[in-house]
Amino acid sequence: MRILEYGCSLAPYYYCYREFFSHLNCKWSLADIPNFPFHYAKYLYRNDPDVEFITINDVDFTNPLGEASEFDVILLTTVLEHLDDPLFISGYLLKRLKTGGLLVFDYIKSEGKGLDHPRALEMRQECLRSILAQTQIVNGKINDINESISLCIAKKKNVL
Fold first, then answer.
1. How high does pLDDT run on average in the chain?
2. What is the pTM of this model?
3. Centroid of chain to Cα 43
4. What's CA 47's distance to the chain center, in Å?
5. Which of 5, 99, 119, 139 is the most core-located residue (most Cβ within 10 A)?
């Protein structure tokens, strides 16, 4: 199984995998822009044979994963609200998610100040509608796309 933790920072999901589920023998890709938490994660897991690091170009987001292939699971938590184009990134990632694969995501609603991006607030509804059109929620719920979305697990549909 191939798993991508996008916007991983310190890679909390990978850490849990290593501590409790490493017997599952998954291949992981940890991706983030160059920042101190990501550099620390790269240092911590530098000797792990089942992990690859993808440093996202923080100037050009048109192809953040480069040549990375498809994934069975994509983890995208506490990320969408920080992006200047969450619609593009969610679509880009869903193209790399296998049909039947799982997208684990949330989308916090904030005022778009500080680390959160004002465009992420503007594009929120369109982004969530796009995700929902391509997936089926299998865990968690989205009662109102105008409110914060807590952790959801969505299965990618066979979209033609």
1. 94
2. 0.94
3. 21
4. 23
5. 5
Kindly tell me if the per-residue pLDDT of 160 is higher than 70.
no
Which distant-in-sequence residues (6+ apart) come within 8 Å of 90 by Cβ? 76, 80, 105, 127, 130, 131
C-alpha to C-alpha distance for 32 and 8, rounded to whole angstroms: 6
Give residue for tokens 């790269």.
42
* Domain 70-160 fold: Rossmann fold (3.40.50)
pLDDT band at 114 (very low <50, low <70, confident <90, very high): confident
> Can you give the residue ranges of every domain in the chain?
1-60, 70-160
Q: Which SS3 state, helix, strand or coil, does residue 86 take?
A: helix
Domain spanning 1-60 has what CATH number? Answer: 3.40.50.150
Q: Is the dihedral of CA 47, 48, 50, 54 positive or negative?
A: negative
Q: How many contiguous H segments (helices) and E segments (strands) does the chain have?
A: 5, 7
Distances (CA, A) of 147 to 105, 111, 129, 135: 14, 12, 13, 19
Q: Could you give the percent of the chain with pLDDT greater than 70?
A: 99
